[in-house]
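Quick one: structure for this chain?
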Amino acid sequence: MLKKLALASAFALISVSSASADGWSSRQNACSKLPSWQELHDKLQSIITQGGNSGLGFNMWATIVANDGTVCAVAFSGADYKGQWLASRVISAQKANTANGLSLAKGVTPATSAFGARGLALATANLYSAVQPGGSLFGLQFSNPVDPDVAYLQQNGQPNDPATFGKFNDPLVGRPIGGVNVFGGGLGLYDKGGVKVGGVGVSGDTSCTDHFVAWKLRSLLKLDRLGETSAGAGDGVAGVNADPKRPDNIVFDITAGVSASGWGHPKCDGGLVPTSLPPVRPLN
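Got it. Here's what it folds into:
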């Protein structure tokens, strides 16, 4: 009897180990078609170096997640992990997870839905007003907490090594971070045909600047295929913004604390305006 129990336990451990290996492999594969750490790092750094992003002019963090929420890359623009707000490392991952988790690809929504079969690209900046008390999504920010083990502990239970933060081997990579963030800096990533492939999150400055930098970063990564195939075609991925060239752009329409659209975000210090951001690429 004891032998049978021992064998059963051994098989169970093998099964769990095998399942864990399969899960890890699956999460690695989820990232295979997304930009590399090097590309994310270099493009983020170029945007910060060039400037003109309004806000405080700080260095920033950026995170890419895959469709299933797996963290694929984490990078920073400064000289080391101490060169930008440390809290923004996890916040950038939160934003990427939120934009990915609340955006939809073209064609997955029923034709009878509010946006038809165009799907919906939803930036984290679009959520600010909706989650305020009395808003249609009040409480959303508490619905999917960050996994503290992923954020702060290695799988062996030991604290993460800060020397790896923002590098190709950042401890967040290959694991789902979770979290919902409801201010600017998170955008869905869209490949040809309006197919959603993940999300990008940026943090480290004012929330408006976070959005502006995320927008420029997504554009440089060429994963902003949300636009119409021709002028006035009406076939791009839908968004809550009235500008079809920038469907998931930040909306500044709050007056006396009330957003006219219900998707508004407060203005921040700085002169950059949303319409100065590059338009999204066409679907094809």
